[in-house]
Amino acid sequence: MADAKRQVHLAAHFPGVNNTTLWADPLHRSQIDFSAFEHFGRTAERGRFDYVFLAEGLRLREHKGQLHELDVVGRPNTLAVLTALAAVTEHIGLVGTLNATFNEPYELARQLSTLDHLSGGRAGWNVVTSSDAFHGANFRRGGFLDHGDRYHRANEFVSLAKELWDSWTADAIVADRATGRFLAEDAADAGAFAHRGAQFDVRGRFATPASPQRYPVIVQAGDSADGRDFASEHAEVIFSRHSAFDEARTFYADVKGRLAGWGRTEDSLKILPAVTFAIGDTQAEAEEVAREVSLAQVTRRNAITVLEQLWGTDLTSYDADGPLPAFDPGEGPADTVSGKITKGWAPRFPNAVQIAQAWRAQSEAEGLSIRELVIKVAGRQSFIGTPSHVASELDRYVQERATDGFVVVGTTSPHGLDAFVDRVVPELQERGVYRTEYEPGATLRQNLELPEPGARVAAVRDAEEEVRRVG
Amino acid sequence: MTRRPTIAVALDGAGWHPAAWRDPSARPAELFTARYWRDLAQFAERADVDLVTFEDALGLQSSTLWSTDERTDQVRGRLDALLIASFVAPVTQRIGLVPTVTTTHTEPFHVATGLQTLDIASRGRAGWRAQISGSPHEAAHFGRRTVPNVDIEALLAGDSEQIRAGLDEAREVVEVVRRLWDSWEADAIIRDASTGRFIDRERIHGAEYEGEHFSIAGASIVPRSPQGQPLVAVLGHQTIPYELAATSADLVFITPLDEAQSVSILGEVRDAEVRTGRTGRPLSVLAEVVVVLESTPAAARAALERLDEQNGSPLTSDALIFTGTPEQLLERIDAWTALGYDGVRIRPARLPRDLEQLADWVLPALGRSDAAGTTLRERLGFELPENRYTAAAAAAGAARQNGEAA
Q1: Cβ A70–B197 below 8 Å, yes or no?
Q2: pTM for the complete prediction?
Q3: What is the pLDDT of residues B329-347, one digit of tens each?
Q4: Domain covering A9-281+383-470, topology
Q5: What is the CATH number of the domain that holds B174?
Q6: Which residues bind FMN (chain B) (predicted)?
Q7: Is B59 in contact with A184 (Cβ distance < 8 A)?
Q8: Chain A closest CA to B12's CA: distance in Å?
């Protein structure tokens, strides 16, 4: 039965600052010029995606005490570029990473509300936290919060933001010329709020009226136990890193299983892992494309850099085409300490010694050089094959509840999405698992098939009423 | 040949009169929509306005100076100005876009990168009106610091401790924002495939700023924007803000109420430039004026009276309230220009009514802008600024060469 099929949701990650963008590729243009964002946004919209996704930068990455120079560096301010994108697109959601550690709730809430107003209900917020004094050095609050505290702050931050967004009712503005009433009679204190918590002690009047979605769609990417709890309380989309099929299914079941504890339904949260793709007219051609991309992403110098991040020491004397270091992280030259060699990268290697040993074992067993090993272990799940094969794999993931869809990551800016939209999307549409048109006027939340915000709040309130009434 | 006076139009809600939203031309139900702001900016651009400013504050509008009120008969609610400007950037081509961004509570790093991005999205048309937030109720929205009630007498006397502290902090914020704007030299992105280097890290510089109020370590995350340094504007009513403008800004908006003040305040600004040791281009000085424009003086007065009556009290403003005909406004602008003013920032009492009057009658009489290019700097006749690090490197190189020659 065609209409019983689960629908695939797609988002597109702008290929900006990371180690996977092929900046030397002749197709690569700028990751800064607005025309790049415009092309990318319009392409995603042409492909009927739910949203485009922008990461955020708060300090330039450093490697061995100097700015890292091998990857794409430099990006615009997330909120400003998303709002500019709102002007040149009509349907596509606009989701940005915005840090809950280095922003203040009042200010960020009004900026997100503004984006939601100006885009007609297309705003989304990927909530991240930072525990990093390196980034903190660029901000007044400076310093950092330890892991637990940053989730406390993030949790209270989002709750407070929701209080602010709820402080205006949707019908507070009547703007009646005849009576001279701009605000409704019962809205004389529109925006009033008072909040006293462990992290924030604030009160006053919120300055921005209720926006089309009221709350932006809340996206979250953290993966620790704290992160998963935060996600199951607040998130409406999880930007997951679990993309291999079995792993994705396990993660999906775990997180969706936590929702009931917060009074939420399974449909109130979408899980979208980040994936890459390589397509060709034949499987062999696609494999060849994928191989070329890997070699361009992991140059000899890049391979050594990845190794240095894990080992926490200078390894420039190693040959990328040779074997891995024979010593474990922490046992090398005494002048560097594991974890300090790189700054500004998300911590990718929580248990360095164990990973290094596994990498060494794998490279010995399979006869892999440093570079070959890094290509094998550092890449994301990639869908490789003909458009029809890629579409069938994406579909399988969704039908079998490994995901609700995907965040597609291209390898060049701004054309990295073109082939996917032109060739894979029609295959998905053909299968009846992907929209062929947007619903006119639909918000991002509606496109994602998420419940309206506040529905849960209302349900809890009704339940409490009921208890009081019965009691 | 003298330049045409600069015409800035200050956009805020339905206009600067609190009852403006009741004017037949107003679109009060649309104040928070994309279409409203796009229409206003595109209309101003077609009329050849040089730049539009967008008002902002980190609190709700109020009829009282330092606290909120519970009036329901005036516009309440506002969108973030930097984001409104960012939104209209790709759908306009020539007009300067100057949002207000506060220096008191907003992180300087966010200010710097947000304005760089506006400059990129507008292809070089960004400016910044830097404004302090002195009110206790705005501080309570952040909860990070407490601000005492402003001592109005001290304020009027021109020497409020609190305002002075706010302005000192603002001076630091502008300084660090300018450093961040310079932190990437124009050619820092090299994309050198032969060496595998995307950037030349020697051409990116950390702000390394330590001031009284905060410190910032790193470089901006945004490469150098088209203008390098977007133009910075400050609105001032007194000596201390004039000094902030003289040390930190490119443009100053001032509020002469009559002929005598038009002379004396301009003199005070020039004195402040001397006192603070300003070098380089003098401040561009724009006079602020609230306008109600109709085809006869009587009609303009009647329009203002009607709005005043609707509001329940006469309009008050920090700036001159001008009611009259477009010809009379042109005379007013001519008089200021003759005194050495670079132009005016016009605050339309009613939007879009008074903007339409400007477009139909005032701007055509002034002639087209003689701008040599499309950036805001070019439009207002400002040079492209030198990057401090590129300039320093060039100077060091020249010194080395001279040394070798000797």
Answers
A1: yes
A2: 0.95
A3: 999 999 999 999 999 999 9
A4: TIM Barrel (3.20.20)
A5: 3.20.20.30
A6: 56, 100
A7: no
A8: 14
